[in-house]
Description:
Layout: E1 2-7, E2 10-15, E3 25-33, E4 38-46, E5 52-55, H1 58-70
Antiparallel strand pairs: 1-2, 3-4, 4-5
Amino acid sequence: MxxxxxxPLGVMSREKGVANxxxxxxxxxxxxxxxxxxxxxxxxxxxxTGQRKGFTDWEQMTQFLRQQMQA
Length: 71
């Protein structure tokens, strides 16, 4: 039996009971409000390694996650 995991980068499939390489990230996002400006801030944390990386826009974060999937 297989199940699909939907994520922002596409759909991954895996067979139940079969070990797969996968990563889990926690996404944090917030607004930074300054002198009449509002900026989005993002961070992702790898739950396995504890490594956290911050971003100032969605494109940077998406590019980082794509690179992690190819590693």
